[in-house]
Write a structure and sequence with these properties.
The chain is mainly alpha-helical and about 150 residues long. Helices cover about 70% and strands about 0% of the residues. The chain has one domain. The longest helix is centred in the N-terminal third of the chain and has 28 residues. The radius of gyration is 17 Å and the shape is globular. One of its GO terms (molecular function) is ammonium channel activity.
Length: about 150
């Protein structure tokens, strides 16, 4: 697969736009809650982004996109190194943004309803189990040989 610098740049632009969604969700949720809870909601969003990044970096990317030995989940690229090349690194960043955004959406539904520690546990379950299992399951349908457009 031949990729050009333009393709990598486009993926980075898209990842940046999805990252801006994180900031948008934080502002929206902080603005919709009572003033005493606005800081708590903002900290939840920042923390779940950090948790999601660590989990996806340590094993999520490997399970979803690593080389498979059994045919279903990946078995390589755990704790992904930054020397894999700009194509893999930009795709990795793009996928982290989607994983983090999916966890952040739940933050809005649980604003003012959960304690911080409970939300952290939910974030770990969402990022480390639910997002990955759905990503692996649906990712098999659209693997490297299939085009997403048809």
């Amino acid at each position: 697969m031949d990729t050009s610098l333009t393709d990598i740049f486009w993926v980075l632009i898209c990842a940046s736009l999805v990252f801006l969604m994180q900031a948008g969700f934080t502002c929206l949720e902080s603005g919709l809650t009572r003033s005493k809870n606005s800081i708590n909601v903002a900290i939840k969003n920042i923390t779940d982004f950090g948790i999601t990044t660590i989990l996806f970096w340590s094993f999520g990317f490997a399970l979803m996109f690593g080389t498979t030995s059994s045919g279903l989940v990946g078995s390589t690229d755990f704790i992904l190194s930054l020397d894999k090349g700009s194509e893999i690194n930009s795709f990795f960043l793009f996928e982290i943004m989607f994983c983090a955004t999916s966890v952040t959406i739940v933050s809005g539904a649980t604003a003012e309803r959960l304690r911080f520690s409970s939300y952290i546990i939910i974030s770990i379950i969402l990022a480390g189990l639910i997002y990955l299992s759905l990503g692996i399951g649906f990712g098999e349908e659209y693997n490297q040989e299939h085009s997403m457009a048809g």
